[in-house]
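Q: Okay, next protein. This is EcsC family protein from Olivibacter oleidegradans. I've checked the sequence twice, so it should be correct. Can you predict the 3D structure?
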Amino acid sequence: MLNSYEEKAYREMQDWKQRMLKAPSVSSKLTKGIQTKMNALIPEKIHQVITVTIEKMVKAVLFGSQYTSSTIKKGRSLQLQEAYVKRVGRHYKNAATIEGAVTGAGGILMGLADFPAFLAIKIKLLFEIASIYGFNVKDYKERLFILYVFKITFCSQQKRKEILSRMENWTTFIQTLPSDVDHFDWRDFQQEYRDYLDLAKLAQLIPIIGAVVGAVANNKLTEQLMTVAMNSYRLRYFKQIDRLEAGT
């Protein structure tokens, strides 16, 4: 039987799932069109920097050791786990806000520096959250789950249904994953992320207003990532409860 906090978290998770499954709105389609036009105005060299940065980030998550320093937190209630998640999230959100303001103040060149710096902040946040929920981030398949959390946060609405289905059935899905991490489709991953970059992040490259835009956008996107991460791990938490109650 769920306690009062778990019931609240379960309702929030269900509401989040409904948002993930919604059909793309007219406004999101219009925004997508504007983003496409703005992307066409950005020099190809900048697009190349973004692409290479994301590729390196994905490979660092899969192969690197710089994100494995967190201690796994086990034996805590969901309420306590999420209290820690919110505290850690505030720290990373503040760091992202400051980073966005500093890099946004410098126009295009400094704005470019925001992409790798902000990616690093977001990925470190996800590794911290995974550890707080008790998952071993040294495990390759747990790292893949982190990438799926990242992807469902920053992908198009059309793709979220497919990604959510895999995350909901993660225990089954991971049995189908290749043991060779080189088979991870990072190209699709980076394309989705590039396509998601909203007008605010693109406007961060504009001198003078970039500082305010960068701070607000980074704050907003980090908050969004934290919300998605919490609900993603709630999926697995409540799936585990269902299996225990079913005796499987």
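A: Here is a summary of the prediction. The chain has one domain: 4-246. Residues 141 and 175 are 10 Å apart (CA to CA).
Q: Noted. On to the next one.
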